[in-house]
Amino acid sequence: MQTLPPTLPTDGVFASVFPSGIQPPKHRRRFAPKAAALIPDIQRTLKDQLRLLLGIGNESFVYGHSRMVTNAGAPFHSHFGSSGIEYRIREPTAVDHAKHITRENSSPLWSMLSQWRSAVGSETVMKLLATVLNELMTEFVTWSYAGIYQEGLYHHLEFWIQHLFSRIAYKVLGCLDDSFNAQRVPETEIKKWKDMAVARLGALRVDELFEIIVDWDATAPAIEDLRQFTTNPATRGYLTHDFANVLQTRLLHPGASTIEILQLYIAITRSFRVLDPKGVLLDRVARRVRRYLRERDDTVKVIVTGLLADTAPQENGREPSSDPEVLSELALELHRHNARDNTTEDSEFDWNNMEWLPDPVDAAPDYMKSNKNTDVIGSLITLFDTKDVFVKELQSTLAERLLKNKPDFNQEISVLEHLKIRFGDSALQACEVMLRDVLDSRKVDHVIRRDLEKEGTSGRMDEEDGGIELHAKILSRLFWPSMLEQSFTVPPEILERQESYEKGFGALKQSRKLTWLNAIGQVDVELELEDRSLREEVLPWQAAVIHAFQDKAAQGEDQPVSKSVSQLATELEMSPTLARSACIFWVSKRILHEISANTFIVLESLPSGTEFDTNMTNDSSTETQASTAAAAEAAALAAAKEAEEAERKQKMAMYHQFVVSMLTNQGSMPLARIAMMLGIVVPGGFPFSNEELKEFLAGMVKEGVLEVGNAGVYKIAS
Question: What's the CATH number of domain 452-640, 3.30.230.130, 3.30.230.10, 3.40.190.170, 3.30.70.20?
Fold first, then answer.
């Protein structure tokens, strides 16, 4: 004699599958070894037969007739993906029932039940049945619905529970218990099984939630499945906990770009607003994502660039080309959803709101009200504690766009008008001044050129300088962000044009004076070579370098002009890094050629039949040209970094006297207090970190200006 194997279900599983009228035996039955050995085979066979009867694993399984009935819907296929394009399952007719029951009765299961009942007893078979049905319900949900996101799924699952699962379960019970009435399944039992199936479907959708949100446009119906699942705090907590762990593993790591994280954050915001309009689930999930985004250095830049992305259709009627490096969804969202649309006040004192509901019981103590920052833009704006971070980056990005040669700035005007609603007029005052400067500059430039033409100065100089036209954008110094200045000497003909322009501006604005920022702007360059011509819009310092190559007096008319980087740096008074960057840029345009290290010549004509020509003109040279362009870009970045570092050192040197004055007047101070005081006394705030300040103070210590006392306190050297 031996006890029942541990594969039999517990009483909890038995009660969850069967109605309250069916009770497990009070005492475990003992069997002979031969009878006990039959139990695994009985369970395996029972599962195989029930799988066939329930239509699991058979995509061609149909309940009743397989033909379509006009205006009544499609027949039921156990596999949801095989239901065709008509997802409305028709209610079975008497003919459907009769046809299916006839097919069911031909199953060998019914004769097997009586044999198993005699071998191991009804109670044992019932326990095996509970285990098998519990497993088959999960198996059916996974097999029929995994990866399929379509409308009508919940109705499909209800059909399977009502007409197949519950009816066959009661039919098997009737064969095992003669006193059991299996003719009619109680509605309470059907509802219990439906709730179990919905829980299995919800667990499946929770496992798939990351894929659902990534492909949100195609998987939106799956959110309805989760709405049926998240009806109590336990399931809601399971969803948010599981999804937050998935996000930590699959998204919130250095391998994912900031744009990818923000794209998924947008999809999470949209989908969870549909799932839970009160925003409690979104509040739980988004906390970890928002905290990670705050730690990324480029988060603000990506958001602002996306807000200013061009969303206007092209001239041919097509949608604007999507740049993978720009989050253009934000621009579309900004124009589609206006903050003023959030007029509903979710407040206990809004007596006219008949749809008001209290906050959910599982809301966090610091849970934000649902109608505050409900849209994507509002959520991103509140990502940081202060809006100044966004406003500062907006000024910087807007400055770059406004300084470009564009026919109009309608996109920038529209974005500013939308953002003024969210940030307020005062926060964007500097941006308004910047935009007004650029628009007014066009009028001022037109008037100055008109006056110069009347005097004859403009036309005469255009002829003498080979048709050079100078257009200026006049900026208000106090309202524009600081710009990286790379010093160099402009050509003499440009200096003459600038002096003439200054006189015209002085006559128009007598109380103001122009200060030229030669490194900022664009130059439209037209180059005429022996066998080709090139017209390109380049940066001013790139134009100055190629202009230096046009002097042939020193080398003769027949010799190509060659210059070294050191010669260019001396002649143009620019840094060698910047000069080499410009030369490499023109090499990528096939205007210059590097004949030796840091020495370049002009390619007046492209050689033919040579190895150089083969490398430069064949289709196979795409990789070479790409590497040259990459080298030019890297050189430009190196030059910009060098100029930025020089500007940073210059600014730090400016704070030298601030530090000396503070320590002289107020005595010794630790690093943190010096940083705090500089933040107070420096106009515009101290822009450097404590590490940079520490490095700067270390330099002052090395110079003998300061001393470091106990506990890292700085004081004036005695």
Answer: 3.30.230.130
